[in-house]
Design goal:
Length: 380
């Protein structure tokens, strides 16, 4: 048994001052104040020295970082993000991988999940393979732009199995319904997301019976079609804003390049902080930034100079979204921990500071810089 004292605990709806947490093995047992949870003398105790303690971040959409892609070096990449408070990550596989490399990436990450150092890896986010080739970085490397055929995808879906927590698809692709049906047969709890798409609300609604409940990076790599010149169409961004059941992923970089700060505010205003998920979409790309963005350090570019994810970590994304939208730290943690845990059906285990959940915690100073990270009850 260990205790944490003298903390400002970031709970689901409030901050608890003078908080004490009782932890046994890898679980939170009790959460209260110094008055309600007396600490027996001689028991191991971590003094948080007035720091914020929040639930470990859950980054469901992260390709790589610190120079490597997740599929190249899973445990090393997981460690990089863990030290930034990401106690749960879903390594993300993109449509630029041909089938053989996709299968290899799945196998390498699955083996890391069972190895020391892979404890924070909870499965995959499949950003593809079937997206609209018109949208997204590395458009020229889309190996999956042809016909959607069972013989091409079944091995991918079978091998990923219940580790594929999210499948992102472009609903307008012909044959996508059979693909989604198959993915749900293999793993009924998989979440379906609309991404890299210009689908209209009807095409998106057609996939709702299969569990479509997310939008992949809202306002990035999406489009819309209009029947009339001079009018605005209704694509995935608008469909997501309209649909109360859907979560919107957002990338909040320091300059508000992925999403203009006014648009971040708009998304929060319409969706509420209960239905927004912060993601890093961090990528280990080596493309050169265009000249006017050469001073920005938290973005990644592809070989054509197009925006290709970020170099964010979730602690930075939390600081950014608070700066851009004036949301509170409690709301920021909902978007960085609780909502993503709910979206992938893991909120019984992780996502908030509650008795019975995993002792995955992040300690932040008053500037919201990381002081300490705890994973499964162990300080890293
Ligand atoms: Zn991505």
């Amino acid at each position: 048994m260990i205790y944490i004292k003298n903390a400002k605990a970031v709970l689901e709806d409030s901050i608890l001052d003078n908080a004490v947490l009782q932890i046994k093995d890898d679980r939170i047992v009790k959460v209260g104040t110094e008055e309600s949870i007396p600490i027996p003398s001689g028991t191991p105790c971590i003094d948080a020295e007035g720091a914020y303690i929040g639930p470990g971040f859950v980054d469901i959409h992260v390709h790589g970082g610190n120079g490597t892609m997740f599929f190249e070096a899973p445990t090393r990449t997981a460690k990089h993000f863990l030290m930034h408070g990401e106690t749960t990550v879903l390594p993300t596989l993109y449509y630029d991988l041909p089938k053989a490399e996709f299968l290899e990436a799945i196998a390498r990450i699955q083996s890391a999940m069972k190895s020391p150092g892979g404890e924070s890896i909870a499965g995959f986010y499949m950003e593809g393979p079937y997206m609209n080739p018109k949208y997204g970085a590395c458009a020229d490397k889309n190996c999956w732009s042809g016909e959607i055929r069972l013989q091409d995808y079944h091995e991918l879906v079978d091998r990923a199995g219940s580790d594929a927590k999210v499948w992102a698809v472009a609903p307008e692709r012909e044959g996508i319904e059979d693909f989604v049906k198959y993915a749900k047969e293999v793993y009924p709890d998989a979440a379906i997301s609309v991404g890299h798409s210009e689908a209209n609300p009807d095409q998106i609604a057609a996939l709702k019976p299969y569990g479509l409940a997310l939008q992949t990076h809202c306002m990035n790599a999406t489009g819309q079609n209009s029947d009339w010149l001079g009018t605005r169409g209704c694509g995935p961004d608008e469909a997501c804003l309209l649909d109360d059941d859907m979560y919107a992923e957002i990338i909040s970089d320091s300059m508000g390049i992925h999403i203009n700060p006014h648009l971040q505010k708009l998304i929060l205003k319409v969706k509420g902080t209960d239905k927004v998920i912060l993601i890093t979409d961090s990528f280990a790309g080596d493309g050169e930034p265009p000249e006017n963005l050469s001073h920005v350090t938290d973005l990644t570019f592809d070989s054509n100079g197009n925006l290709c994810g970020s170099r964010l970590t979730m602690d930075a994304a939390v600081r950014n979204v608070m700066k851009h939208t004036d949301c509170s730290i409690v709301q920021a943690f909902r978007m960085a921990s609780y909502n993503p845990a709910r979206a992938i059906g893991m909120d019984k285990e992780i996502g908030s500071i509650s008795p019975g959940k995993k002792a995955n915690l992040v300690f932040l100073d008053s500037d919201l810089q990381i002081k300490k990270v705890m994973l499964n009850g162990i300080v890293q």
